[in-house]
Structure formats: structure tokens, C-alpha cells
């Protein structure tokens, strides 16, 4: 139960809590941040800011079992704030160009899916990342995003429909619904 040990370290403000957070959750936080902001350096900054915030506010964590969700909430809020402050769309054409109608390569499929996720509005992308990458239940996604579960379900339904359309267009697989 690493999360309980880490939560206790955070509660006491122990310096080794920072290293434990990085080791246990660093990769997942950075990847979730990247999927939202679509920039590697920004994702690294968000990871660092998330870990610093968690270490500074570790005493505020009420439930050790919720540590992962709490960290993802901090990272998501920082990523969404960054996206709003920049108000820009990061082009993903480079990844999209690597996929074509004849692509059967799994990496091409993965790039097409990432391209489809990248075209979603930021908050919808955050919902998709938290639900399908971080594998959080809808209720936890709703808590992280500060929305109702029904709003999150609606966002996910619309996002998946948009992703299917985008994926079908990129891969020429009209009508295939088992991919996304």
C-alpha cells in the first residue's frame, strides 16, 4: 500500500515524500498532463508543479486512498489553467500525417487515436484522458473536473463520437466502431 506510506510522508512534510510521489505517480501524471496540453516541456512543468503542490498541501489530504485521484486533480487543474492562459491550439498535423488510409501498423492506429484526442476541446480532452487513460470512474472524473457525473458522461459520449469520426477519416475505416 504505497499510497498510504506516501500519504503519511506528505502529512508529516517529510522531504522523501517528494521522491516517493515522483517514483510512484510521476509517469502517470506527466502522461496525463501531456495528453491534455500536448507539449512535453509543459507536461514536465505540470508534473513538477503538481508534486510541489502535493508536498506543500499534503496535510490537506483527508483520505490516503484518494491520493492518486487528488494528484490527478491537481495536475488536470494545472493543465487546464495553462491551456486557458495560452488560448492556443497545438497543431497535431505532424502525427496525423504519419497515418494514412493504408495504415495497418498498430503505431499508426495509436497516432490516429492521439490525433483524434488532440482535436477535442481541452476540457473534453481532459475528461477522456482521466476516464480512459487514468482509468478513473466517471464519478471521480466529475470530482476532478468539478462537474456532475451526467455532464461528464455527456462529454465522453460526444468526445467518443467525434474521435470515431476523426479516426474513420484518417484511417479510411468508415463504419468500424471497435477501435475507439
Structural features, described:
The protein is mainly α and 180 residues long. It folds into two domains: 1-90, RNA polymerase sigma factor, region 2, helix turn helix motif (Rna Polymerase Sigma Factor, Chain: A, Orthogonal Bundle), CATH 1.10.1740; 93-180, Orthogonal Bundle (Arc Repressor Mutant, subunit A), CATH 1.10.10.10. The chain has nine helices and no strands. Helix 4 crosses helix 8 (138-145) and helix 6 (106-118) packs across helix 9. The chain is elongated. 36% of the residues are buried.
SSE inventory with pairings:
Blueprint: H1 2-12, H2 16-37, H3 40-56, H4 67-86, H5 93-97, H6 106-118, H7 122-133, H8 138-145, H9 149-171
Brief overview, please?
This protein is an all-alpha fold and 180 residues long. The protein is built from nine helices and no strands.
Amino acid at each position: 500500500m504505497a499510497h498510504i506510506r506516501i500519504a503519511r510522508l506528505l502529512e508529516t512534510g517529510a522531504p522523501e515524500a517528494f521522491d516517493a510521489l515522483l517514483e510512484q505517480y510521476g509517469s502517470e501524471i506527466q502522461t496525463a498532463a501531456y495528453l491534455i496540453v500536448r507539449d512535453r516541456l509543459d507536461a514536465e512543468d505540470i508534473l513538477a508543479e503538481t508534486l510541489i503542490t502535493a508536498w506543500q498541501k499534503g496535510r490537506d489530504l483527508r483520505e490516503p486512498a484518494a491520493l492518486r485521484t487528488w494528484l490527478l486533480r491537481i495536475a488536470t487543474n494545472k493543465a487546464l489553467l495553462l491551456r486557458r492562459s495560452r488560448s492556443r491550439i497545438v497543431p497535431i498535423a505532424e502525427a496525423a500525417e504519419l497515418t494514412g488510409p493504408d495504415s495497418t501498423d498498430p503505431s499508426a492506429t495509436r497516432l490516429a487515436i492521439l490525433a483524434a484526442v488532440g482535436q477535442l476541446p481541452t476540457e473534453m480532452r481532459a475528461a477522456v484522458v482521466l476516464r480512459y487513460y487514468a482509468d478513473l470512474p466517471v464519478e471521480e472524473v466529475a470530482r476532478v473536473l468539478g462537474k456532475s457525473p451526467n455532464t461528464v458522461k455527456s462529454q465522453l459520449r460526444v468526445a467518443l463520437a467525434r474521435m470515431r469520426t476523426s479516426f474513420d477519416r484518417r484511417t479510411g475505416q468508415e463504419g468500424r466502431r471497435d477501435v475507439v
